[in-house]
Request: fold
Amino acid sequence: MKKLTLASLTVVVASMCLGIVACNANKRPDQFEQNQGQNLIQLNEVEDKTFSIQTGKEINENSQQSNKELQPLKVSISAEKNAFVRLPLVSYTTDSNLIKTSVPMRGRPDFKYDVFYEIEGSSLVVYKVAAAVDIDKDEVPSAVKIGKGSFAGKLKVALVRYPIKFIKVEKKKNSDNETTHQLGEFVVDEIANATHIRLDMTGYQQAKLQIKANTFPAEYLKGEWYYAQTVVAAPSSKEELLGQGDTQDQNLQATQRVKFEFSENMIKAVNINVDSRTDQTSEVNFATVISIPSAWKDYQMPRKGADVDLEEREAAETNWALRKFVALNFEQTKSAGGELSSTKVVSLEVTNDSFTFVLQNNESNIQIRYSFRKRL
Reply:
């Protein structure tokens, strides 16, 4: 057997050490330079992932909201699911770290909502996803219907927005033009050239919706309705009026069935309980039962190019007849044959096939309930 000399042994050991060093160098993890790599999200985490919001119990709104103007009316929610209701404030948890749980959330109690992210221009927008019946009525007007994919047919509601920059992350090279384990980040102009995005956490914007008290979808008011008008409260000196009703049109003809006719500044409930031999398409044959001043509305989250602003605004450029929502000024309601007087709205109750509002005359203190139930 050939003996190893001290010199040859030294060479072997040195070679082994070099091999270990090289091996360790290959196993060294990639890492960013100091103060880089913060608040970065890989693009595939944005494009492919979904999250969820799990709601809990209903929250007492009086303890959460000091601005009473946001909830001026009593609004009922029937037991069935409606596509037009004011949903309550709820507690919630979420697995998305981009939704701050201090943000108020309206929704169905003990319900799961899907969440996904979208890059729009230079923003990352966080959306809540659900069917229209599971979204608060004030969120619906500016919500967007999803056209394809697993959420097709549902509505997406913008919750929050973060300004972003497009970042390309790649390994740096040393002076010998060799690839190192040092990662560098480089700002690029287009998403096509990016591997990551950086969120500006200080530029966080929460969606801000317009107040839509007394606002109805135009479609909701179409069709035939049963109508009733009843005195529900009166001073003791006029208590004989309690329970009395007045369901006559302007021609003093009895009415039970009405339909709504629309104009730019007014909606009218007209009597359709007329002789079947009359022309049912002519407005001349339908006398007015009640009229309510109106303002036609459309809403949108405004855009500048591809960027979106989450402060909802009215879209005033559309012709009134094409707008999808109408705000009703119940305080200026005028019954057939009655004179306009000073009134205030006491309550408004809405379900998917009925609505009722109560007005109080500020001079007589008499309260009258106006009830409409859709003829199905």
About this structure: The first strand starts at residue 31 and ends at 32. Residues 64-81 have pLDDT under 50 and may be disordered.
